[in-house]
């Protein structure tokens, strides 16, 4: 008999406004979330690894202009796209991460290559790209990643001179649009992946939690896999992903308690808005958020699909 397997994904948490969400956009977002979770689930169903499943799921969202990762990433102060990504394999605690890449179509695939084909865990900027090109990755022009919506968001942000919009033009302008996935495969292995364009109007080579193992991403077989989304400055300081894993491992908390304790407690206390997805060693899924929404989807151990946006769903 095959072992239980399941997968969960997110397309970012934050303030997502019902009143500004058009039916058309909602349908498009739900459809891409479903496409992503199904891409990962199909791999698990065929006996593939959790690692391949999370990378495949994240790749679908990187290719969609609707999320802040790959195509559709937010713009820096200099009107560039700079992307971060990380992946962790719970089998052997192997991990790969990249930060500040500008010309790699699917940053999550580069993070996986860093893990599998380099002696390192974390590469940045031009060096990370150079490694990618040596592995056969194509050079992708910045134009590919650019979307009108992100340009408008940047201009609005520049007017406010900050990182948070006071006027929301799009229903999810105040969303942290990172994407991520966690999976348990039929061999009992856990994996997690996270990919992002970071935050609008970022400067000075700013990097958030997403590519930092233990902050935005973690996977540990028999324990938990976690991918976070939210204002990275807070998630880094609370090492959110590692804290979920530690609470479960040492305090023997279940996945629901561990996640809620951090997201509604420690993280919120210091002003950190956002959420996470987590999946334990038995395939139990938990979505946690202290914001009004998080784009998310899952296919649980019974094969049941769910796709949701708002916190009260
Ligand atoms: N965590 C990401 C960062 O701070 C942002 C996000 O979740 O959208 O870079």
From TrEMBL:
SUPFAM superfamilies: N-terminal nucleophile aminohydrolases (Ntn hydrolases). Transmembrane segments: none annotated. InterPro entries: Ntn_hydrolases_N, Peptidase_T2. Coiled coil: none annotated. This is Isoaspartyl peptidase/L-asparaginase. It comes from Vibrio tritonius. The lineage of its organism: Bacteria, Pseudomonadati, Pseudomonadota, Gammaproteobacteria, Vibrionales.
């Amino acid at each position: 008999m095959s072992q239980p397997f399941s997968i969960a994904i997110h397309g970012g948490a934050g303030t997502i406004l019902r009143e500004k969400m058009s039916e058309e956009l909602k349908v498009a977002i739900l459809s891409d979330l479903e496409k992503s979770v199904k891409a990962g689930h199909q791999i698990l169903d065929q006996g593939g690894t959790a690692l391949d499943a999370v990378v495949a799921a994240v790749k679908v969202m990187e290719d969609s202009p609707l999320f802040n990762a790959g195509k559709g990433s937010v713009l820096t102060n200099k009107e560039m796209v700079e992307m971060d990504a990380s992946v962790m394999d719970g089998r052997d605690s192997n991990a790969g991460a990249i930060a500040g890449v500008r010309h790699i179509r699917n940053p999550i695939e580069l993070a996986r290559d860093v893990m599998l084909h380099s002696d390192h865990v974390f590469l940045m900027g031009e060096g990370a790209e150079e490694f990618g090109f040596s592995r056969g990755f194509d050079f992708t022009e910045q134009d590919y990643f650019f979307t009108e919506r992100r340009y408008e968001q940047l201009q609005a942000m520049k007017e406010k001179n900050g990182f948070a919009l006071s006027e929301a033009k799009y229903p999810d302008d105040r969303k942290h649009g990172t994407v991520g996935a966690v999976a348990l495969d039929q061999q009992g292995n856990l994996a997690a992946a996270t990919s992002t364009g970071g935050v609008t109007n970022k400067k000075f080579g700013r990097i958030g939690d997403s590519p930092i193992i233990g902050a935005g991403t973690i996977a540990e077989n028999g324990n938990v896999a976690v991918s976070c989304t939210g204002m990275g400055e807070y998630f880094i300081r609370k090492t959110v992903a590692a804290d979920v894993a530690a609470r479960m491992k040492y305090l023997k908390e279940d996945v629901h308690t561990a996640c809620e304790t951090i997201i509604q407690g420690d993280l919120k206390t210091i002003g950190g808005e956002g959420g996470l997805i987590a999946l334990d060693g038995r395939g139990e899924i938990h979505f946690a958020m202290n914001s009004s929404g998080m784009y998310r989807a899952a296919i649980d151990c019974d094969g049941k699909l769910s796709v949701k946006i708002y916190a009260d769903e």
